[in-house]
């Protein structure tokens, strides 16, 4: 067996397929672009959907990649099994309508067995095939695989619903009897079964059918190859590792964790080993994901990041690490991936900052979670319960990040068990919610065969002119058929040349008209998209029939186009200004360029201050006022990068690219249209800034006449405010507002003083009315014309005078009601808790609340229920 590093293995795979005519595609960001069906990029083929469903025809039908991916559907198994991971790399080769089974199988066998490449012993390899796929079996035998190493399995059919599907063939490596963890007669003890001996390393999917909306399987017009090889598994074979974790992809993080732990060593304790593995795996996943723009939050991708960080921290505590440590592993992760993902190491400071912030936040949450867990255990022991309820264990897991194993350990120390079945029910509900949130979108479209067949050459000339004569109608499409003459009101047309920009990169498509040779309008252009083979596909609303082969005059709406250009160039200025002001970690996460405004989404950790927004806005306007020329150069991607051009994860760049330079301020790859000089933009004004997702901020802005209108409207509103404040000069408005605020503050203080005095007088009567019940003494009362501040002050007075065991006060007016509960500290020790009492009575005012064991409060919207709440409180105490 060759002695290879993970980086060498990855490169060897890519080099092999490059020799076979494949284009090496760079790994895409983990964050999907324009794909609502995915939370993360979870496979190599996930980035190839547009090629396989036919919406785009690739420049080269042969592609290969090493794609970083994340899956969290079975996170509970990470660390416990040899091969489960959250982040992994999927090596793959892909053919879109080019080669098929024979070549895919022949090349796979060559890569695995040739001494020039992997050089594995062919006797160690086993293949599974779909029983009806006789061709796959035949080709495996032809390359030299013994028939007894080919196993037919009914499940070898890849199908994800509508879209491409077909049989597949899996390749297994026999690791030998030392890895045999099952009895010889165990039904799972075979290549393809659930065992440790035969390791699946590669899956080749022969995508040859369209799974239609009618649930039938029709032959694809172009058959495809999609393969996936797990890098981590292959590395474990080359490096003679018993699990994936004893390889150069994970051991560096494990060794660093050993240094940070309380004298723990990997390989000496099964329980500790699980913790080491979880930390190494999760550190890898969060480091790469944060580098790609994901940030911790309570929803979506951010929730996954937060959960992984918390799970790693809890396992760190198991190893005796009681301080922030995970952030220290970010540079280690960066070094393990540097050969192929250098940006991870370059961003290590930013990534570590994000992780450290989340660690500090969670250490506080962890303390709260442990406190809750101990309270739950104490209540269970007091009530002589034998187990902790499943929903409570799930709350600890979901809200506080406690692995259920930790809850089980703490419970076991107290002689309790955890309702595992109830926990699994809650876990399944969460998985169903996540799956249903994405089930409405198509995972992969059905190939649109007609457009795939159209290969007519069509030139876009809109960079130079917006008015084209003698544009020939090459194809006219109605109801998915090519016709010679249109009949419908809405049709699609491909011209041999066009000035109409097709929607791309956030820039909306051009609008305009189609004229006949006499200059009469025959259609309006309402949309333009890219056809699979790259032509501009025009959607027309027709007034007259169009005839295939006829020539037409195409005219773009110049005003619409000009306004879009202004906003697009302003987007480039905004992008660079954000990097300059907020930091180089800022990445574009999406944009929309319309004629009347622009929208720009970007990754950023934390909020953007008003001061920084002002800096950004001023920086953009400075470039506009400096009247900088905007230049475009057509070159190759390598030269463009040398020029300093910024590339986006979401874009695939061909052999030729357009590099747009705004002086030396901004240089970007961009296929859109732009102004010739920044002075054409006129003015730039930020309208709003907000958070729209986990670590994603959004700026909306306007330029030119829309910016002037926005400022003019603000001035009108300010004049209205000035009139209402009775000031003659606009500059005097802030001073007048400050004066009014001071007056209001004074009046509010007087009101509070009067309310406190009135509440105190009422309280004298309330405090005299003490009830004695079996659970202790209680004072209840309703205070009129008071707020929560007054109720809290009365509770302090009650506590200082030691008037009863429990106090319950309420107040309300209109549709608002408030309750406060206070309990003497010695009664808290007896099990009477304010939080429990407030929860039991808050429903009477149609509200809810909570608080500390000795003080709690609630708000509601039904003051009429206050009397019932008082009676309910006395009954609650009596029944304790």
TrEMBL record:
Catalytic activity, reaction form: tRNA(Ala) + L-alanine + ATP = L-alanyl-tRNA(Ala) + AMP + diphosphate
Gene: alaS
Cofactor note (record): Binds 1 zinc ion per subunit.
Domain writeup: Consists of three domains; the N-terminal catalytic domain, the editing domain and the C-terminal C-Ala domain. The editing domain removes incorrectly charged amino acids, while the C-Ala domain, along with tRNA(Ala), serves as a bridge to cooperatively bring together the editing and aminoacylation centers thus stimulating deacylation of misacylated tRNAs.
Leader peptide range in chain numbering: none
Location relative to the cell: Cytoplasm
Coiled coil regions, renumbered to chain: 737-764
Organism: Lentilactobacillus fungorum
Cofactor: Zn(2+)
Stated name of the protein: Alanine--tRNA ligase
Similarity comment: Belongs to the class-II aminoacyl-tRNA synthetase family.
Alphabetic keyword roster: Aminoacyl-tRNA synthetase, ATP-binding, Coiled coil, Cytoplasm, Ligase, Metal-binding, Nucleotide-binding, Protein biosynthesis, RNA-binding, tRNA-binding, Zinc
InterPro entries with a match to the protein in the record: aa-tRNA-synth_II/BPL/LPL, Ala-tRNA-lgiase_IIc, Ala-tRNA-ligase_IIc_anticod-bd, Ala-tRNA-synth_IIc_core, Ala-tRNA-synth_IIc_N, Ala-tRNA_ligase, Ala_tRNA_ligase_euk/bac, DHHA1_dom
């Amino acid at each position: 067996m060759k002695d290879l590093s993970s980086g060498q293995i990855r490169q060897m795979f890519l080099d092999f397929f490059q020799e076979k005519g494949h284009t090496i595609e760079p790994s895409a960001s983990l964050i999907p672009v324009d794909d609502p069906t995915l939370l993360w990029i979870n496979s190599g083929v996930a980035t190839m959907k547009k090629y396989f469903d036919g919406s785009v025809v690739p420049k080269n039908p042969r592609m290969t990649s090493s794609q970083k991916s994340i899956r969290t559907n079975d996170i509970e198994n990470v660390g416990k099994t040899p091969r489960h991971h959250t982040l992994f790399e999927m090596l793959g080769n892909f053919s879109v309508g080019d080669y098929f089974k024979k070549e895919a199988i022949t090349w796979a066998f060559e890569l695995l067995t040739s001494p020039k490449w992997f050089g594995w012993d062919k006797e160690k390899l086993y293949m599974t095939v779909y029983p009806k796929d006789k061709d796959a079996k035949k080709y495996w035998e032809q390359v030299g695989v013994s028939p007894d190493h080919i196993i037919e399995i009914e499940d070898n059919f890849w199908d994800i619903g509508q879209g491409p599907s077909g049989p597949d063939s899996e390749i297994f490596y026999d690791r030998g009897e030392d890895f045999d963890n099952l009895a010889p007669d165990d039904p799972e003890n075979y290549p393809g079964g659930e065992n440790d001996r035969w390791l699946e390393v590669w899956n080749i999917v022969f995508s040859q059918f369209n799974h239609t909306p009618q649930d039938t399987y029709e032959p694809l017009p172009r058959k495809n190859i999609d393969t996936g090889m797990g890098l981590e598994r292959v590395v474990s074979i080359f490096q003679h590792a018993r699990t994936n974790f004893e390889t150069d992809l994970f051991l560096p993080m494990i060794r660093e964790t050993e240094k940070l732990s309380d004298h723990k060593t990997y390989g000496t304790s099964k329980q500790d080993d699980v913790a080491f593995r979880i930390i190494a795996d999760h550190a890898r996943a969060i480091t790469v994901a944060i580098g790609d723009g994901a940030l911790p939050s309570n929803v979506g991708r951010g929730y996954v990041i937060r959960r992984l960080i918390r799970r790693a921290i809890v396992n760190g505590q198991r190893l005796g690490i009681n301080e922030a440590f995970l952030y220290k592993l970010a540079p280690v992760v960066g070094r393990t991936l540097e050969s192929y993902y250098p940006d991870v190491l370059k961003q290590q400071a930013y990534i570590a900052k994000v992780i450290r912030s989340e660690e500090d936040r969670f250490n506080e949450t962890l303390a709260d979670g442990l406190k809750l867990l101990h309270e739950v255990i104490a209540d269970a022991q007091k009530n002589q319960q034998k187990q902790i309820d499943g929903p409570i264990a799930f709350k600890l897991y979901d809200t506080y990040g406690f692995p259920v194993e930790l809850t089980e350990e703490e419970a076991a120390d107290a002689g309790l068990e955890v309702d595992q079945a109830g926990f699994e029910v809650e876990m399944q509900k969460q998985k169903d919610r996540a799956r249903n949130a994405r089930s409405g979108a198509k995972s992969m479209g059905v190939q649109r065969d007609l457009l795939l067949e159209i290969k007519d050459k069509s030139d876009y000339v809109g960079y130079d002119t917006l008015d084209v004569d003698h544009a020939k109608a090459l194809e006219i499409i109605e109801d998915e058929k090519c016709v010679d003459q249109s009949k419908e009101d809405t049709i699609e047309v491909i011209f041999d040349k066009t000035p109409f920009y097709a929607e791309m990169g956030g820039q909306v498509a051009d609008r305009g008209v189609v004229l006949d040779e006499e200059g009469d309008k025959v259609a309006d252009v309402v949309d333009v998209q890219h056809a699979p083979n790259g032509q501009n596909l025009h959607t027309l609303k027709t007034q007259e029939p169009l005839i295939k082969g006829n020539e037409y005059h195409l005219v773009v709406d110049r005003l619409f186009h000009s306004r879009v250009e202004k906003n697009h160039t302003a987007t480039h200025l905004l992008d660079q200004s954000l990097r300059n002001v907020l930091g180089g970690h800022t990445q574009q996460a999406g944009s929309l360029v319309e004629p009347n405004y622009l929208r720009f989404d970007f990754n950023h950790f934390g909020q953007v201050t008003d001061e920084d927004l002002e800096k950004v806005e001023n920086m953009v306007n400075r470039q506009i006022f400096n009247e900088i020329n905007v230049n475009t150069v057509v070159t190759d991607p390598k030269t463009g990068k040398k020029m300093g051009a910024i590339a986006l994860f979401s874009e695939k760049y061909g052999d030729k690219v357009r590099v747009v330079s705004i002086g030396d301020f901004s240089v970007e790859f961009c296929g859109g249209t732009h102004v010739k000089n920044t002075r054409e933009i006129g003015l730039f004004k930020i309208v709003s800034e907000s958070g729209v997702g986990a670590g994603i901020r959004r700026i909306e802005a306007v330029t030119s006449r829309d910016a002037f209108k926005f400022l003019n409207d603000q001035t009108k509103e300010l004049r209205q405010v000035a009139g209402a404040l009775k000031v003659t000069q606009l500059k005097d408005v802030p001073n007048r507002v400050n004066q009014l605020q001071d007056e209001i503050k004074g009046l509010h203080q007087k009101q509070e003083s009067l309310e406190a005095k009135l509440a105190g007088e009422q309280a004298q009567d309330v405090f005299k009315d003490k009830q004695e019940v079996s659970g202790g003494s209680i004072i209840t009362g309703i205070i009129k014309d008071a707020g929560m501040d007054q109720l809290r002050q009365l509770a302090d007075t009650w506590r200082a005078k030691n008037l009863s065991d429990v106090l319950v006060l309420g107040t309300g007016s209109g549709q608002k009601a408030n309750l406060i509960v206070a309990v003497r500290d010695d009664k808290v020790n007896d099990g009477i808790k304010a939080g429990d009492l407030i929860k039991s009575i808050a429903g009477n005012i149609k509200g809810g609340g909570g608080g500390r064991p000795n003080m709690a409060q609630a708000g509601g919207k039904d003051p009429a229920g206050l009397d019932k709440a008082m009676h309910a409180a006395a009954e609650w105490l009596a029944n304790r």
